Amino acid sequence: MKNILYISSSARKYNDHKPQHQSISRMLGKHFLNELSADLPDVEVVHRDLSIHQPAFIDEAFLAAAFEKHSLSEEQQQILAASDLAIKEVKDADVIVISSPMYNYGMPAVLKAWFDLVIRVNQTFSFDLARGDKPLLPILSGKSVVLLASWGECEFKKGETQHHLNHLSSHIEQLSPYLGADNFYEIASEYQEFNDQRHQDSKQKAIEDTIELAKLLKAKHVTGH
Ligand SMILES: Cc1cc2nc3c(=O)[nH]c(=O)nc-3n(C[C@H](O)[C@H](O)[C@H](O)COP(=O)(O)O)c2cc1C
């Protein structure tokens, strides 16, 4: 059995039959998952839609429980329950697919809230001052993390003129080792706000790249070739 964890985070929905105002990042997620699970009935996809089931923000009680050195009280166990489940889903996954819009040059708040639940001491990273100035070390490994993104403007990709403004891709790439990523992949559709030919071309290219990447990861993680 191979497991895919799919995290979607756009505030917009996606419906094949409606041409306008549909989430592009969700549309890419749909193409990716269709291709990845095609002809593979044993692949299990766990889908967490963060815009419907919004993660709670962490607070002082959460941090006290997460850093508790002794056994947890029942109340602390409850406080950590959503984090425990999210971490289990990450641990169980071979491929983690994150579909995300760019909001204010970064990730949506619901996605950041999910990362704050998942990246937890002694669960997804260890902390040891004996390592000097870099005390954090990811615990998980062997996974692929895929970011399927959409943004309204352009020139945000690596090597392009506005890459320094793109805090969505760089942030998620930086966090991906804490999800256990050995490999990070990114595909983005651009120019949504212009709604012109450049947007249509970019969207079409992102769909094609998404399907190609799904084939590659299917060979790598699922069929093992
Ligand atoms: C609240 C909000 C903030 C946005 N901020 C940016 C931005 O900083 N840069 C950008 O290029 N596009 C921005 N956009 C445009 C979205 O990234 C674009 O509409 C994208 O397609 C959204 O993803 P979705 O289609 O999956 O919903 C923003 C849109 C919204 C609703």
From TrEMBL:
Entry keyword Transport: no
Co-factor remark: Binds 1 FMN per subunit.
EC class name: oxidoreductase
Protein keywords: Flavoprotein, FMN, NAD, Oxidoreductase
Protein family (similarity comment): Belongs to the azoreductase type 1 family.
InterPro entries to which the protein is assigned, alphabetical: Flavodoxin_fold, Flavoprotein-like_sf, FMN-dep_NADH:Q_OxRdtase_AzoR1, NADH:quinone_OxRdtase_FMN_depd
Name this protein carries in UniProt: FMN dependent NADH:quinone oxidoreductase
Function: Quinone reductase that provides resistance to thiol-specific stress caused by electrophilic quinones.
Catalysis performed (reactions): N,N-dimethyl-1,4-phenylenediamine + anthranilate + 2 NAD(+) = 2-(4-dimethylaminophenyl)diazenylbenzoate + 2 NADH + 2 H(+); 2 a quinone + NADH + H(+) = 2 a 1,4-benzosemiquinone + NAD(+)
A Pfam family annotated for this UniProt entry: Flavodoxin_2
All copies of domain Flavodoxin-like fold, residue ranges: 17-208
Keyword Oxidoreductase annotated: yes
Annotated GO MF terms: electron transfer activity; FMN binding; oxidoreductase activity, acting on NAD(P)H as acceptor; oxidoreductase activity, acting on NAD(P)H, quinone or similar compound as acceptor
